[in-house]
Amino acid sequence: MQDGNVPQSYFPNNLRFITEHPWFSRSTLFTKLLFASFISGIILIGIVLQGFMLQQNLQKGQEINQERLKLTQELIYWQNTAKHYTNYRDIYFRIATLQYEIGNNEAARDSLQKVLSLDPNFKEGQLLGEKINKH
Question: Which residue, 133, 131, 134, 114, is CA-closest to 122?
Fold first, then answer.
């Protein structure tokens, strides 16, 4: 020790352990790298496809909201008209139809009762009543 030579036992041998491990050999490392790249590619394709589907769903949602807004505005118009013309079957039928299209079946059923009270033999009203009762 005094001659400047340090015994080998003073140096850790774990530094070479990582690179000498069979898991890091050149052949298995390339295979694992190739496999990881393949899996990453599949995940990337899935992310891109989900992005396209999300964009399509957002566009469909906006179209549905616009259509619903249009129906709601028309419904408000007919409800205001019905206040002035209380005994017109066709106004109440249009109100019932719009409420059914919006999905408000209970209100559609009430408006349809008004239609059928004004004209019990109204075929279109009876057909709408059958559709409403199915839901």
Answer: 114
Which tokens sit at 85? Answer: 């013309």
pLDDT digits (tens, 9 = 90+) for 71-88: 999 999 999 999 999 889
Token pair recorded at residue 74: 């028309």
Q: Give CA 105 to chain center in angstroms.
A: 24
Query: Tell me: the pLDDT tens digits for 31-65?
Result: 888 899 999 999 999 999 999 999 999 999 999 99
- The helices-and-strands tally (H runs, E runs) of the chain is 5, 0
Q: What burial class does residue 95 get, using C-beta atoms within 10 Å of its C-beta: 0-12 exposed, 13-18 middle, 19+ buried?
A: buried
